[in-house]
Amino acid sequence: MADSDGHITSGMILIVEDNIPFGELVAGTLREDGYQCHTVSTGAAALIWLASHPVNLLLLDYTLVDMTGEAFIAAMAEQGSQVPFVVVTGRDDSNLAVQMIKQGASDFVVKDTALLDRLPVVVSRTLQEAATMQRLCHAEQALRQSELRLARAQRIARIGSWEWDLQSNGLYFSPELFSILGYDGTAPPDVSLEWFYRQINPSDTCFVRKALSAAIESGRNLNQTFRIATCSGEEIVVASQAELEYDSDGRPELLVGTLLDVTDRTRAEQEIHHLANYDTLTGLPNRNLLHDRLQQAIVQAARVQGSVGVLFLDLDRFKGVNEQLGHRAGDQLLRTVAERLRVCVRESDTLARAGGDEFVIILSVVSDEDGISSAASKILAIISEPFVIEERELYLTASIGVAVYPTDGADVQSLLKHADLAMYQAKDMDRNNFQFFSSDLNVKVMERMVLESSLRRALERDEFKLLYQPQVDVITGSVVGFEALLRWHHPDLGTISPEKFIPLAEETGLILSIGEWVLRTACRQAKIWQDAGLRPVRMAVNLSGRQFRMKLDEIVAAILLETGFDPRWLELELTESILMRNASDNIELLQALTAMGCSLSIDDFGTGYSSLAYLKHFPLERLKIDRSFVRDVTTNPDDRAIAKIIIDMAHTLKMEVTAEGVEEREQLELLKRYGCREMQGFFFSRPVPAASAEKLLRKGITF
Q1: CB count, 10 Å around CB of 581?
Q2: What letter would DSSP give residue 411?
Q3: Angstrom distance (rounded) from CA 279 to CA 352
Q4: Residue range 81-100, pLDDT digits in tens
Q5: What φ, ψ does residue 248 adopt, rounded to 5°?
Q6: Helices (H) and strands (E) in the chain, counts
Q7: Shortest CA distance to 41 belongs to which of 23, 29, 57, 59?
Q8: DSSP structural state of residue 278
């Protein structure tokens, strides 16, 4: 069963990934798109699963703990499995990609920053291609069966025969030939050469006349295929073979031939060609034909020293249409989009559907970028006009990436890749626009890929460390807690700012394993201090949105059990945006965490959007005033008013409040006067390593 993107929702995807949290993240992403998934962490487990379960697609991590991707592919082949597979790897290695494709991989995907966004499209495309190949096999089987029928027909002499007497110009048809043409053998028509020509499709008549004349003049055997009308007016395709016979004087006397109905075989061949080259939903060229057309456009442009424009178009928020209106409406919308895009291209250009909601336009032999910009603007305008789908008016936008031959690449793969990158840049720039590929963009992408590759190895290479910033009770002057802050020191790049690597970790899903490490390390350190006889203080740990959605209560419970840390000293910090996403569903998780004994706080309060109606129902103990309000609290009346409102609201809701980013005594005194008792910031201490934090805990802070 397939949806409008070609997803085979009744099938199974096997994910072979030795990074278990990342494997579950991939599975979660695909399940959101309607796929069934099963995850294993070793090649041996994957082979066992394949031997006993039906699988539609396999996502294979090239580097497994027990074998390489190459060894696994060999083992899978030895096992007799023909499941299509996509290799997923952290190595952007073109040689490895070629090697994997040669070994049968359907695709080769690098674990870059956009992997989770692209993965559903890659899976959809691979499943579509697998389904197409299956249909091709069926069509080829039908073709082979037709050929078997042909051989059988020849054996039992069911082939029609004809003779042309070159002396009298008379034409003779056998009863079998009349039968093929649908005529009653007891009352056949009077046949002649002119009658015969009138039955042939007008487009083929000239071709048949010339072939017959050439056979007589040259003496070579005739072998031709053409279309001819039957008695009922239906058109069939026939194959005719003939050879020349001579009289006793060596002069051409007869042209003797056979005729066979090959309509079924011809249709099977046409179906095979169509399935291999055209999208079944829109009728547009598919990726296979797209590559061929783009190669032709490059060759033509190179011949005349011209340019080719490649526009990679992706519909914005199309997934929401499928989710809200259903896949039938999504199919109808995609067909309507295809019809509109046809209007925007010339006959010499190519419009193709690359898969899902992605389309590619090849503008052949363009003179300059202005012409490409004009075409892209026209496309955006026509897409933004309202669609009427199932009597509902819908509004849609698109993002377009543009690559130009030869500036942005001299081959098919480079141009499509660069147009794709430019399209993602267009999406990042608030969508509904087009962007040309630039070398700077490629540099940024490469830098990001290097950073991501390093980030994937940072945990195992022990490159992360935690610093601890004290939280101070300004009435008693004592340290009442620490906030654990993550830092990354790369051996080659030096210290990398959290503002740079935390968003990347979020996008790639690495935040799950990193966040778990932070939580475990912070709890273990706090337990070490307590075991050393230091008084217990609160340990605050920030959580990400991805962590919050991935069985957080089970992970926290396991870490507390592992480290022996008393949960009443653990404070989990969440942002407003995390809390307000599916707010009603989050209450149950928050209650589970507080039931363990953990406390909860809202970090950076005031920078997001909170509904007080929900806020009062959350089991929260603390609000943290964001440093952006604290920075100018003594000079900006608005910030001063906001800080006072947050403090008063926290007290009204019987919650504690902590001010972040306190750097000056004047800030401290003002906030203290407003009723804020706990603060943290450079005024008290910068974030420090565990040993220095222990000294602060032993000796206190003077301010």
Answers
A1: 13
A2: S
A3: 8
A4: 888 999 888 776 767 777 88
A5: -65, -20
A6: 26, 26
A7: 23
A8: B
